[in-house]
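QA checklist item 7 of 12: single-chain prediction sanity check.
[x] sequence parsed
[x] length recorded as 185
[x] structure emitted
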Amino acid sequence: MRCGRLGLLCALTLCAPMVTPNVTLAQRAVVVSSTESGSAAIAEALAAGAPTPIRRAIDEMHRSSATFRRQCLRLAAAQRVHISMHFDPRLTSSSWRARTAINRRDGQVVSARVLLPLSLQAVELIAHELEHILEQIDGVDLPRHVDAGAVWKDGDGSFESARAIGIGRRVAQEVAARHSLVVRR
């Protein structure tokens, strides 16, 4: 979904299967279970199976971004949520930059499947998609918020939210700010 003035191409699909491109050697999956304890454990689990540039980005996100650490703590506190992250370099030609499909059981989020590109915007996209998962854990009724202007619905039934866009940008800014500091003695 293209969010016009916001310029992000991301999507959240609720309760619908995700169509995935064919697997290539560059595609890898990361699996995180919320039974991990603490933000560091979640960040480590996210980074563990990721390609090296993504692993480095997640490590830097955890070091530099209080917002990302809060996301990890919230995911750690969630009950029995399974997150799988898949990285595919071919997503650059897609109509969206990242996508998350949420599955529920008895009204509770039980799993999320995140599809991400191998991208220079990995920091923003990872935080953005994790926020979509947290929105659903929080019970945000995205269709109800479409008319209020904080949520957009695409023709394919996927949703985009100002909340996820803002969090993704905030984490990217926090990481960038840490790198722009120059210490002089």
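[x] summary fact logged: Confidence is low (pLDDT under 50) at residues 1-29.
[ ] second reviewer sign-off
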